[in-house]
Amino acid sequence: MYTSPISLILGFHGCDKRTGEKVLCGEIPHLSRSENAYDWLGHGIYFWEHNPERALEFAMEQRDHPRPNKPKIDEPFVVGSVIDPANCLNLLESEALRLVSRAYGQFCRISEEANSPLPQNKSDTRSGELLQRFLDCAVIETLHDLRAREDRTPYDTVRGVFEEGVPLYANSGFRSKTHVQMCVRNSACIKGYFRLLHPCTLE
Q1: Cβ atoms 104, 118 nearer than 8 A
Q2: Is 2 among the domain residues?
Q3: Of the given ranges (95-99, 185-189, 199-203), which has the lowest mean pLDDT?
Q4: Which CATH number covers residue 79?
Q5: Is residue 201 pLDDT above 90, yes or no?
Q6: pLDDT one-digit tens code per residue, 96-114
Q7: Which has fewest Cβ within 10 Å: 24, 26, 67, 73?
């Protein structure tokens, strides 16, 4: 579904330096998958697309405000990666959005039959942002599950744009943390990791 003429993208992952160095030297083959019930794009390895500064900012936020079930970060670090989106559920495309909307309807029916309440997206108490995407994660994972049951080609990656942060100025349509994220479900799509030649700094 990924129709961009760009066949490869650069992704950046914020983590603890010890973890990053182990990935860069090959001590561990890949970064860890995130499988939280509130993951924005479902389960997989997360990257900030073409945005190393946002990856570092995220790692710093995790250091200063640790969240449950997240790896501890003592020294914020950024790992670069080269990603082939392959068969991508690209949520910047209309067709992909229709598929997610359809999956939501199916998820509602499944939950109703199971007499189970729908999960809810929740706002962060500090920022007010919808940082815990329980409903969105469940819908995306439902889409993947239904696709598997239909023996359809699985999605290797999921890509989405998110408006986040404060307006840049009064009545602005731009926000300070707007970004594109890539969730890699198939680690074979990660063609390699690299060290930033000029590490970004925010402090």
Answers
A1: no
A2: no
A3: 199-203
A4: 3.90.228
A5: no
A6: 999 999 999 999 999 999 9
A7: 26
**Domain assignment present for 201:** no
- The per-residue pLDDT for range 102-154, each reduced to its tens digit, is 999 999 999 999 999 999 999 887 777 888 999 999 999 999 999 999 999 99
CA distance 131 to 67: 11
**115 with 131: CB under 8 angstroms?**
no
Q: Name the domain count of the chain.
A: 1
Distance CA 45, CA 135 (A): 19
Neighbours of 140 (CB within 10 A): 28
The DSSP H or E segment spanning 142 is helix 134-149
Q: Identity (one letter) of the amino acid at 149?
A: R
Name the token pair of 69: 């079930």
The letter for the amino acid at 98 is: R
- 74 vs 23: CA distance, rounded Å: 17
Residue among 92, 201, 89, 99 nearest 155 (CA): 89
Domain interval for residue 117: 9-194
Note whether 30 and 22 are within 8 A (CB): no
- Residue 199 in any domain: the answer is no
In a domain, 65, yes or no: yes
C-beta atoms surrounding 87 within 10 Å = 16
How would you classify residue 124: left for phi > 0, otherwise alpha for psi between -120 and 50, otherwise beta? beta
Query: Strand ranges (DSSP E) for the chain?
Result: 9-16, 45-49, 76-83, 88-90, 121-122, 132-133, 157-162, 179-184, 190-194
